[in-house]
């Protein structure tokens, strides 16, 4: 991956060098070019070579020139600068340029001059001793600083009115950008290693170390360590590669033009550049939009790239790579059709698209329908998955709540979902995992349901039915050691079968299977609980039934519920006048099974949330 990053930076430097200044702005202050009118003259300052920068300054060719120079002379930080001791000249570092802030100008003149001497002594270490031109330029700048610079600052209106945080930059005009870049490359090649104790020297004297951008040395934090790495340290790199890694990370940290996650193609670097430029032009574009942009006019899927996920680390105050993986082939669309069927109606129109065509549609469905955040006193849901794939701690948005069940499921399965969507590891989500997610989320909604008397509705019914639609539609989609049944067809068949059993004339039709028993029980429980006239008419009342594991205890819970509300039911004498409820109640109470009732939970829920078969009670059902 390091090889691919350095090659990509080489490619950008050759094809699109302007990209390294993209989205950057000059710091407020004064920018000055120094030049000579004749070869033997001293450096002078012309009015057209001065640029005052504030929040209102427009971009011009002069602005862009100064921006390119500051970008290629900037220091890593105050402690890694040419003037780390006195801390007076720390904004940039170059033998051909120098800067001082309003704060630095508050120092006594002797301290400023001594600090300038230290600055040039540090700069000289990065000048090639055999390059007479570079040495001459540095000597000319040094002479200007010692004889003219502070006089210019004191007598120039724009310089005198500097704020403490503003800076004055002086650059020699004669050197070209490559001269400045040459010095910075030597400086960065030395300063970009994280800890000197890990540096080693090759036989030819070249230093190899651990790039500061790739290692945070989080040995004390287990959750930040690379658990699968074969070595304690990642690969050492030479100074040139460390410099290119720095430029790559600067595109993410300062230019903010690298998408996250970012595809880094091995053989098609123009695709990587295309992704970066697309994101640069549309900062609202997500990975979905970038991938779809790259797929345009391509007959094949994307393949052979590294997927890099960046995350801001507050401790380091910078972005770092928190996930990196090679993607041999990215499947944008599913090989096997993923279709969501509206089995349990939530409104007059269908809630879901019939087909989930792409992995990003699947992710959106998880965000919008499963992992929800609820504003206080509202049922409006907000997705939380995308913001928390790699967060240290999952937190709700300010003023919003999120259940512990949802948080725990995200911690447990967010990485698998990320790999499924972004790395095409479609085998990673299996039936057991999907089934657990759906079961726990549905039960969690049941527990938090409230009956809203004003609207005569259940607060969570829509969300529960949406989840059941997803659960049953994809029940046999994911890998399972045993073939699973089609829950969509089964639900429809059970409904029709139960309606047949319930008809008074069908005296010989009986409940014969566990599924028929569970579906019928769900229908009974919903009908009984709907007779409640108390303020407790919530779906949360269903949970105690679902906690039972044995059929006798499960049936006893139904019987006790019926006992509480029997006054609301009418009874009829004789088989000819018995209505559906009586028949199904009798069948359920008489059925026996050794099956663990928790294994029948999806079918019980299907019966509970399906349309009622008890047509004679329709006017009293409160549904």
Structure description:
The protein is 41% helix and 11% strand. The chain is an alpha+beta fold and 623 residues long. The chain folds into 4 domains: 2-191, no CATH class; 258-330, no CATH class; 359-473, no CATH class; 491-620, no CATH class. The protein has a 4-stranded mixed beta sheet with strand order 2-1-4-3, covered by helices on one side. Strands 5-6-7 form a 3-stranded antiparallel beta sheet. The protein has a 3-stranded antiparallel beta sheet with strand order 8-9-10. Strand 5 and strand 6 form a beta hairpin. Residues 216-234 and 617-623 have low confidence and may be disordered.
Low-confidence segments: 216-234, 617-623
* Helix share, percent: 40-55%
Largest sheet: 4 strands, mixed
The end-to-end distance, rounded to whole angstroms, is 59 Å
Count of discrete domains: 4
Structural class: alpha+beta
The tally of strands reads 15
Share in β-strands: 5-15%
The number of helical elements comes to 19
The averaged pLDDT comes out at: 84
* Strand numbers in spatial order across the main sheet: 2-1-4-3
Radius of gyration: 35 Å
Which term fits the overall shape? elongated
Short characterization:
The chain has 19 helices and 15 strands.
Strand and helix map with partners:
Blueprint: H1 2-15, E1 29-34, E2 50-53, H2 61-71, E3 97-101, H3 109-124, H4 132-155, H5 157-160, E4 167-172, H6 177-191, E5 200-201, E6 207-209, E7 237-238, H7 239-253, E8 262-265, H8 269-281, H9 287-295, E9 303-313, E10 318-329, H10 359-370, E11 372-375, E12 382-383, E13 400-401, H11 404-422, H12 431-447, E14 451-452, E15 457-458, H13 461-473, H14 487-502, H15 514-529, H16 543-546, H17 551-565, H18 580-590, H19 601-609
Helix pairs in contact: 1-7, 3-4, 6-7, 8-9, 10-11, 11-12, 12-13, 14-15, 14-18, 15-17, 15-18, 15-19
């Amino acid at each position: 991956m390091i090889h691919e990053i350095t090659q990509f930076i080489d490619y950008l430097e050759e094809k699109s060098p302007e990209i390294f200044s993209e989205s950057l702005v000059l710091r407020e202050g004064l920018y000055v070019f120094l030049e000579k009118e004749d070869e033997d003259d001293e450096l002078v300052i012309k009015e057209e070579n001065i640029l005052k920068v504030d929040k209102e300054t427009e971009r011009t060719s002069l602005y862009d020139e100064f921006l390119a120079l500051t970008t290629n002379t900037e220091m890593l930080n105050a402690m890694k600068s040419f003037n780390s001791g006195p801390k007076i000249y720390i904004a940039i570092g170059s033998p051909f340029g120098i800067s001082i802030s309003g704060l630095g100008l508050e120092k006594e003149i002797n301290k400023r001059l001594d600090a300038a001497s230290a600055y040039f002594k540090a700069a000289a270490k990065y000048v090639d001793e055999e390059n007479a031109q570079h040495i001459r330029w540095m000597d000319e700048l040094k002479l200007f600083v010692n004889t003219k610079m502070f006089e210019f600052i004191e007598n120039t209106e724009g310089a005198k009115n500097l704020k403490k945080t503003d800076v004055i930059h002086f650059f020699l005009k004669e050197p070209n950008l490559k001269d400045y870049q040459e010095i910075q490359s030597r400086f960065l090649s030395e300063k970009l290693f994280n800890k000197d104790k890990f540096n080693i020297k090759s036989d030819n004297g070249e230093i190899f170390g651990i790039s500061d951008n790739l290692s945070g040395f989080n040995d004390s934090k287990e959750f930040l360590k690379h658990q699968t790495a074969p070595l304690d340290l990642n690969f050492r790199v030479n100074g040139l590669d460390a410099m290119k890694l720095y430029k790559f990370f600067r595109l993410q940290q300062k230019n903010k033009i690298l998408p996250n996650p970012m595809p880094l193609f091995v053989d098609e670097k123009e695709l990587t550049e295309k992704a970066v430029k697309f994101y640069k032009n549309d900062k609202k574009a997500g990975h979905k939009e970038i991938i779809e942009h790259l797929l345009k006019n391509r007959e094949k899927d994307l393949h052979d790239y590294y997927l890099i996920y960046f995350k801001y680390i507050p401790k380091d105050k910078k972005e770092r790579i928190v996930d990196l993986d090679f993607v041999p082939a990215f499947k944008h669309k599913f090989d096997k059709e993923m279709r969501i069927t509206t089995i349990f109606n939530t409104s007059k129109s269908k809630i879901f698209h019939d087909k989930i065509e792409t992995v990003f549609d699947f992710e959106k469905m998880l965000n919008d329908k499963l992992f929800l955040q609820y504003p206080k006193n509202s049922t409006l849901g907000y997705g939380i998955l995308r913001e928390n794939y790699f967060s240290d701690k999952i937190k709700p948005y300010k003023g919003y709540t999120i259940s512990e069940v949802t948080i725990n499921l995200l911690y447990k399965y967010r990485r698998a979902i990320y790999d499924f969507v972004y790395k095409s590891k479609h085998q990673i989500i299996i039936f057991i995992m999907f089934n657990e997610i759906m079961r726990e989320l549905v039960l969690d909604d049941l527990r938090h349901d409230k009956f809203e008397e004003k609207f005569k509705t259940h607060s969570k019914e829509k969300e529960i039915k949406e989840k059941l639609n997803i659960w049953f539609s994809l029940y046999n989609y994911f890998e399972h050691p045993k073939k699973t049944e089609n829950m969509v067809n089964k639900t429809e068949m059970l409904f029709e079968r139960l309606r047949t059993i319930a008809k008074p004339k069908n005296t010989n039709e009986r409940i014969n299977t566990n599924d028929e028993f569970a579906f019928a029980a769900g229908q009974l429980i919903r009908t009984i609980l709907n007779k409640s006239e108390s303020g407790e008419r919530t779906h949360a009342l269903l949970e105690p039934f679902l906690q039972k594991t044995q059929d006798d205890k499960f049936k006893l819970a139904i019987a006790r519920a019926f006992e509480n509300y029997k006054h609301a039911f009418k009874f009829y004498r004789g088989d000819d006048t018995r209505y559906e409820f009586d028949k199904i109640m009798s069948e359920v109470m008489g059925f026996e099974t050794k099956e663990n009732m928790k294994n029948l939970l999806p079918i019980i829920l299907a019966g509970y949330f399906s349309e009622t078969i008890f047509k004679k009670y329709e006017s009293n059902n409160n549904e």
